[in-house]
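Researcher: Here's the sequence for the chain we discussed earlier.
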Amino acid sequence: QKSVERTVALKVFNKNYLGQDAPASFIKQIQTIGRFQHQNILSFFDGGTFENSCYISMLYVPEGTFANKVANSFPLSELFITTTITKIAEALKYALDEHGTIHLDINPKSILFTDSDEPVISDLGLSAWLTWSYQLNRKNFMGNPVYMSPEQALDQSLDWKADQYSLGITMFEAFAGFPPFKADNAYNLINKHKNEPIVFPKHSNISQATKNAILKMTAKKPVDRFSSWEQFINAIKGNATQPKLVSTQSQQLPMKNKLSLSLKSPASKSQKILSLPSVNKKKYPVNLHSKNK
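Model: Thanks. This is the structure I predict for it:
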């Protein structure tokens, strides 16, 4: 932004891939995003439509992502990981309680760090809007199946507990250095999320209380997860009073996701689209546009 001599990050979405209702719904959504006031939510400056595009300008954060931290500084201390995840959970709690907004695409790359090393969540409000737009117009599902909850992948009713699951998978990866499940295609990966238990590396030096919290976050059934963000935050606060390191004896795999999907989002290269057989539009109760408080 030349007028204020500020460097910003610009995200652009092609309206042709989002349907004719996308511009109007986008404007409503960025009005909600513009009301976010939380230190752990990436700052938003401006947004709108121009010709065939919807755009949003955000704070430019050059310090990298949580994925970069894991890849470049592994193993991370338990204290650092639980502190980072707690702050992101507090931001998600604020967005849900104050604005009725959920994320639907939490992963290590959606958590960024400011120049003061403060974690911030990006795309909050945008991922849910994209999911809704693709469901409505193309019968595709947005998201990354490496971190996607079983109910999101299987086109079931969604609420904030889908975010809790994705944050739990992200937290596991921060400790282990790799995600809990891998497969040669998206559908096999989804089946693992649905049916297989999460197993921690044998030599991981992580407190039992934190392990229990991750296992509860990633329960297959939403009803078995934490009943509120506050309950989860209280469960992991204080688990790591001293820095603990994950053992380097466990197998370390690269953070880069090797899963190859046949479809990529034309709206955003960082997103992946998972085609499902059908989408019940009436079954999707996510509150995309909150009331102005």
